Amino acid sequence: MDQTWIDMYEAAKAVRGHKVISDYVTAGEVSAAILSKSGKIYTGVCIDTCSTLGICAERNAIFNMITNGEYEIARVLCISPNEGKGAPCGACRELMVQLMPGKYKDIEIMINYKTDRVMKLGELTPEWWID
Ligand SMILES: [Zn+2]
């Protein structure tokens, strides 16, 4: 595994941790790190709320990247409650596709950190509605 994946894992781990924010909002059970094309790492945590106002850690991290003026993703890693295993949900995949039409298939996704299993978004979304 190359050092960038390790740096991403450490960055995601640093913001992870279940927090009860109010009677209606919890956060941090899942965390994510996004590597932008420029090489910067952006993190995000999941935010869970009543009435579906929350957000996945991956999309939160992507929004963090966009907030900071970057629009291209190179890699995605998330640490789920079962420690670093899991592919992005359909909504997160959809955002990545819409953000990078024509280029999203090359985004690398860490599927299982423990076994160093990486897949490209194009393998996870082979027949999306946008090419
Ligand atoms: Zn998601």
How is this structure best summarized?
This protein is α+β, with helices and mostly antiparallel strands and 131 residues long.
Series of secondary-structure elements, N-terminal to C-terminal: HEEEHEHEEH
What's the gyration radius in Å? 14 Å
The proportion of strand residues reads: 25-35%
Query: Mean pLDDT across all residues, rounded?
Result: 95
Task: Estimate the global geometry from the Cα principal axes.
Answer: globular
CATH topology: Cytidine Deaminase, domain 2
Number of domains: 1
Task: Record the SSE blueprint.
Blueprint: H1 3-15, E1 19-20, E2 25-36, E3 41-49, H2 57-67, E4 73-79, H3 90-99, E5 108-112, E6 117-120, H4 121-124
Task: Tell me what you see in this structure.
With 131 residues, the chain is of the alpha+beta class. The chain has one domain (3-124): 3-Layer(aba) Sandwich (Cytidine Deaminase, domain 2), CATH 3.40.140.10. Helices cover 29% and strands 30% of the residues. Strands 1, 2, 3, 4, 5 and 6 form a six-stranded mixed beta sheet that branches. α3 links the parallel β4 (73-79) and β5 (108-112). It is globular. It starts with a helix and ends in a 7-residue tail after the last helix. The structure holds zinc ion (ZN). Zinc ion binds at residues 56, 58-59, 88-89, 91-92.
